[in-house]
Amino acid sequence: MDFTERERQVLTDIEKWSAQMHHEQTDFEMTYDKWLENSLSLIPENIRTEFFSKLDNWLFHLHAILQGSQFQVDARERLIGSARIFKQDIDDISDLKELTIDELTYLAENQIAKHHLYSFAHGGLSGTGGLLLLGTDIPAITILNLRIVQLIAMTYGYEVNTPYEMMTSLKVFHAATLPKRMRYQGWEALIRDADGNNQNQYFYNGSEELTDETWLELPLKHIVKAIAISVLRKRMIQGIPLISMAIGAGMNYQLTRQVSDFAHNYYRFRFLNEKES
After folding, report:
1. Matching PANTHER family, A to Z (predicted)?
2. 105-115, pLDDT tens digit by residue?
3. DSSP single-letter state for residue 237
4. What helix, strand, coil percent values describe the chain, rounded to 5?
5. How many Å is the maximal CA-CA distance in the chain?
6. Are 259 and 142 in contact (CB under 8 A)?
7. Which of 207, 203, 202 is CA-nearest to residue 190?
């Protein structure tokens, strides 16, 4: 099927966005990578393998729990209801593929804007330095970002409760949270898989491994954030720990923006790629 002028423009925008991910490693980044590699090499390989396997299992279970939650079921129904504004005979998530790219973008951007706000608010609360909020910050921000990937996928007509779509959404989340210098490689790997032959695939036939040494920078950043918040939370401005709250809100917002931009561009590309085929 031929693209409309608007669809060609969206593809051009995605290409420009992906080109911006090209990143030459700095000397500092190469030194950091070498240090991290050397540090991890001190840990026996069987322990490292078991650690990353358990981390992958945690993400799989988190995804499944989130997808089966009433909260997500309600969000699914609201999404279908919102889509009926544009086309009244939409009854299922797969029917959303009948909408135009601009209509789908509108629905997705509504979800993204809400999650930006949730992330900013949660980061601000964790920035108050409360032990419970700080302790649950990494699981909470992981859940929030997994959820926005799921919602964007559903917006473009992909049911994430099948093995193939579940694994794809997890790989999108993983690639979106990689360090900037490695994110483009993750994007290219996803794009290679995003061809029209996979659109009706149910089972996932590729590698199911997600996390490795390259992904550890994300939790390390949030551990450093927690330390900074703990140190700065006593610096009050009119009785409010504004500095630590700004750190928490800013970092969480930036991560959610990074994940949502990546996921949105991926699922827009995949939607158009399948339409062409």
Report:
1. PROTEIN ECSC
2. 999 999 999 99
3. B
4. 75, 0, 25
5. 61
6. no
7. 207
CA gap 222, 229 in Å, rounded = 10
Structure tokens at 209: 């491994």
Question: What single letter denotes the amino acid at residue 134?
Answer: L
Selection from 251, 249, 183 nearest residue 220 by Cα: 251
- Helix crossing, 163-176 with 242-276: angle to 10°? 130
- The single residue listed with the structure tokens 């420009």 is 16
Is residue 120 within 8 A of residue 249, CB to CB? The reply is: yes
pTM: 0.91
CA-closest candidate to residue 257, choices 246, 249, 269, 245: 249
User: In 3D, which of 158, 128, 101, 134 has the Cα closest to residue 241?
Assistant: 128
Give the amino acid at 146.
Answer: L
Write down the mean pLDDT value for the chain: 87
| Contact in structure between 253 and 120 (CB atoms under 8 Å) | yes
Domain map (residue ranges) of the chain: 5-276
Angle between helices 217-232 and 242-276 (to 10 degrees): 160
Least reliable range by pLDDT among 63-77, 197-211, 227-241 = 197-211
